Structures are given as C-alpha cells and as structure tokens.
C-alpha cells in the first residue's frame, strides 16, 4: 500500500508545477503571464510582514504589500515586471519559517466596465 508521501512524490516527479506551466517561456501567452503582481502562498501563520518582504526586496522595489497576519497568503506588487519575474524564479519553493513558498503571477485586473465606457467616450 502506498502512502501519501509516495503520491506527492509521483505528482512532483511526473507533472510540471503550475508555475512551470504558466511561464514556460517568458514571452508565452497564458492565463497569468508575467506581471508586477505576485500571489505568495503557503505562508506560515506566524510570519510577519517584514520577514516576508525581507526576502523579496533584494529583487527590486515593492510598490505595495497586501498581507494580513495569520493568513497563509499575501500579494506583493513590484514596481517593475522584471523584478517580479526574478523574484518568482529565485524564490519558488524557498522555505520561509519552515514552509516552501508557492508563488504565482496574479491575473491582470481589467478596468471596471463603467470606467472603460467613460474612457471610450472621451
């Protein structure tokens, strides 16, 4: 009888991660192409914002951080897309407070329908 660990190892060994699927190449078109905004998951519930940002700041200036203590995820917005790309490439799976990070690009936010209509009328 195989245990849970063997099933997890099978998934990792034979299936690419969602990160690899999404960025296969930097210029590929996919659901969440590289952007300035990252979703960072699998965070320890005891992690503090400054502990998290400390690991991302070496890659570039952060425009914003949406983080609530006790949550297992955060959103980090870099000023430059290249910096976000470098961070996700370097820190994917990096352990912080004992948990390996899961990082994904977030979906682009489309303008609100009313805002778009106003812009088109101008």
From TrEMBL:
Keywords: RNA-binding. Residues 25-37 have a biased composition (Low complexity). The keyword Membrane does not apply. One of its GO terms (molecular function) is RNA binding. Residues 1-24 have a biased composition (Basic and acidic residues). Residues 36-108 form the RRM domain. Residues 1-37 are annotated as: Disordered. Pfam families: RRM_1 (PF00076). PANTHER family: RNA RECOGNITION MOTIF-CONTAINING. This is Flowering time control protein FPA.
